[in-house]
């Protein structure tokens, strides 16, 4: 039996760089369902929070405890960055690569690559160089490349930054069906429309601390702190 990743518990968790705390200490337990959306002003620590939880930023204090051993938890997570890094290869090769690295046969990898390219609307672009795709197409490829490994948890850092309305909607549709299939999403966004559309749970970061949190949609109507209220109104919060 495969044990569950969740709940994950952060106890005094923090990450620092050259002695400066980027985010933390954070005390928080996350359960395994739905989309958790991380919001907050620029520099409040959203990216650092995601990276710390994923293990991409070193924990410099406190602990993070998964429902299963940490190496197993990390194997079952994927991370989509704000500016996806593409292999200088075709769309198909970008999709087959993570599978082949995990020991999947080339034939099986190609079949799954075609299936995933179809799911994200890139079926006609399999032979195209990934580097010449548009921003929206690259972000869809990055999503498919993350999802093709069937992660239980997907981190997304501003997945729709600099995308237009249509590309944003397409990405959100993929994320909604990913969520419906049981993958936990933890994502940051500056787009409060997107936060409202996507969130089951909201974390509001301010100056590297978890300042407020709540379930959606209630959080958006009744944030618990004046700072969260001001941020949601669009006021400058520092
Ligand atoms: N590698 C690093 N070295 C030093 N400081 C860093 C590093 N990465 C982030 N920081 C600092 O940590 C703080 C939090 O940054 P982070 O990128 O996590 O915030 P954010 O909420 O994601 O910001 P944004 O909304 O602008 O993307 C900022 O003050 C940033 O300058």
Automatic annotation (TrEMBL):
Q: Name one Pfam family in it.
A: ABC_tran
Q: What molecular function terms (GO) are annotated for this protein?
A: ATP binding; ATP hydrolysis activity
> Please, which domain of life does this record's source organism belong to?
Bacteria
Keywords (alphabetical) are: ATP-binding, Nucleotide-binding, Transport
Q: PROSITE patterns from the xrefs?
A: ABC_TRANSPORTER_1, ABC_TRANSPORTER_2
Q: Which residues form the ABC transporter domain?
A: 8-232
The protein, known as: Amino acid ABC transporter ATP-binding protein
Taxonomy of origin reads:
Bacteria, Pseudomonadati, Pseudomonadota, Alphaproteobacteria, Rhodobacterales
